[in-house]
Structures are given as structure tokens and as C-alpha cells.
Task: structure prediction
Amino acid sequence: MKEGLAQGSSWRQAESHRRMVTFATAQAEYHEKRAEYWRRIVTECEAEADRLESGEEQEA
Result:
């Protein structure tokens, strides 16, 4: 009987660990996609600022 409980406990621990790993992986992927999004936004804004600055310099 104790052996069955130990196996069940071991299975629950393994399942809990698997879920934590799955969550951590999904969380890391989310944060990486979010960082990529903001890098793209910053790059686009910097490019637009450069275009505006170069346009102002040409007009002056």
C-alpha cells in the first residue's frame, strides 16, 4: 500500500514539475516576444526621428 502511495506522490511531483517547466517556458517566450516588439517600436521611432531631423536640416 505504501508503495502505491509513494508512486502516486512521485507521479504528482513529476507532473507538478512538468507544469512548472511548461509555465516557465511559456513565460520566457512571452517576455522574449514582448522585448522583440518593443525593440521594433524603438527602432521604427528612431528611424522616423532620423528622417525628420534630416528633412529639417535639408530645409534650413
Summary: Residues 9-43 form one domain. The chain is about 95% helix and 0% strand.
